[in-house]
């Protein structure tokens, strides 16, 4: 949550800076064009016009680049939100499975069967990975805790990959 707030604040700051830069560039280009036009003799006015056009095109390209970067970061942020939601669902299902097994839930109960069916694809690679301590039907599924940790690491890796598409690295 704190990271989302920081990303949102960073995004808002970038948008505000972008709008500020657009305004400054617009004013600067108009000012430079006016100065060049006033200073130049009649014969150099054509050169001043070309210079003004060049400055204007450069300013427009910079603004377009920043706008496309902002749009890309918004799209990646939305994808990140969907990824987060899906991982939170997986965490919830695995957590319920751990709690139900620790409490000794009956295998014949409908809810237990439902949670087992939902968690089976996510927990299958981890079943029997480590010893499962237990007394009677009460078991602590250590391999499921390992699965939860692995999915958390995978979640962090996916979000890190998505951040690569958003943040510009300016230093090595």
Rg, please? 29 Å
Order of helices and strands: HHHEEH
Q: Please summarize the sheet with the most strands.
A: 2 strands, antiparallel
Side-by-side strand order of the widest sheet: 1-2
Describe the global form. Answer: rod-shaped
Give the topology.
Layout: H1 2-39, H2 45-102, H3 110-123, E1 134-135, E2 138-139, H4 142-166
Antiparallel strand pairs: 1-2
Helix pairs in contact: 1-2, 2-3, 2-4
State the gist of this model.
It contains 4 helices and 2 strands.
Walk me through what this model shows.
With 172 residues, this protein is mainly alpha-helical. The chain has one domain. The protein is 78% helix and 2% strand. The protein has four helices and two strands. It has helices at residues 2-39, 45-102, 110-123, 142-166, and strands spanning 134-135, 138-139. The protein has a two-stranded antiparallel sheet. A hairpin with a 2-residue loop joins strand 1 (134-135) and strand 2. The protein is rod-shaped. The model has no long low-confidence stretch (mean pLDDT 82).
Descriptors:
78% helix, mainly alpha, two-stranded antiparallel ribbon, 172 residues, 4 helices
